Amino acid sequence: MACLGAALGLRCITRALAVHPSRRAGWLALGAAAIGSGVWTLHVIAMMGFTIGEVRIAYDTLVTFASLLVAIAVAAVGVFAVGFLGRTVPAVLTGGCFTGLAIAAMHYTGMRGLRLRGDLEHAPSTVGMSVAVAVAGAVVALWCAVSVRRRYAGALAGVLLGFTITAAHYTGMAALTVHLHSSAREGSNGAGPVALLAPVLIGPVVFLFLAVVVVALDPPVPDAFPEPVPVRGRRTTRPSRAARPSRPGERPRERQ
């Protein structure tokens, strides 16, 4: 899901750079929503596998959905920076930094929605490492998507950004330590993470697959990276001796 959202988002960015400026904002908004939804969907699916023994874990639905909006909003800053500033180095760096920050912001906002009888503690150094992984991977993936003139560069960039999202998530989880309260195991019977989180996935997952349809059915546009067309110059040859003009008073030579 992370790779799907990342590939869709990057594809929308490259499409926005190729279409008429009047249509650019729509493609960029779709790209930001796809990247944010991919990040959020990965986080929710991954948290289905997060358990602490027999301790009951719940999730605040409002905070969980707020993390989705955070991811889309922060990613939009980076996406629009590239879309309207072009393929310049400052634009790619700005877009990659904000896309990486969107990954990190979504993760740690989503972790605020975790509800259990205990306290959560994050190691600052590992948190910083997760942010660095997110930003570095996003910059490289965005540069690959909009600057590399190769047929499979977009697909490679989507896979790279998808794995960056995954790596940032699990690096952030490695920074987590849970200090359980003495009564944490009381009343542990209840709905598990899968039952709690599966219903909230329906909307973003449906959106991602609808975005696939929109991108697939959109009429093709001129290549964002047109190959230079070689221009053949006319060969200039020296005129033959027979074709040279005759000197004054000289009889013109006949062509043999």
Describe this structure in words.
The chain is 62% helix and 5% strand. The protein has eight helices and four strands; from the N terminus they run ααβααββααβαα. About 3% of the residues have low confidence. The longest helix has 27 residues. The protein has 256 residues and is mainly alpha-helical. α2 runs parallel beside α4 and α3 runs antiparallel to α4. The N and C termini lie far apart (78 Å). It has a two-stranded antiparallel sheet with strand order 1-2. Strands 3-4 form a two-stranded antiparallel sheet. The chain is elongated, with a radius of gyration of 28 Å.
Features of the shown structure:
mainly alpha; 5% strand; 256 residues; two-stranded antiparallel sheet; 4 strands; 8 helices
> How many individual helices?
8
| Mean pLDDT over the residues | 82
Main sheet: strand order? 1-2
Span of the ends, CA to CA:
78 Å
Structural class: mainly alpha
Helix content: 55-70%
> Could you give the order of the helices and strands?
HHEHHEEHHEHH
| Largest sheet geometry | 2 strands, antiparallel
Radius of gyration: 28 Å
Which parts are unreliable, with pLDDT below 50 for 5 consecutive residues or more?
223-229
Strand content: 5-15%
Characterize the quaternary organization of these chains: single chain
Count of distinct strands: 4
Instruction: Tell me the overall shape.
Output: elongated
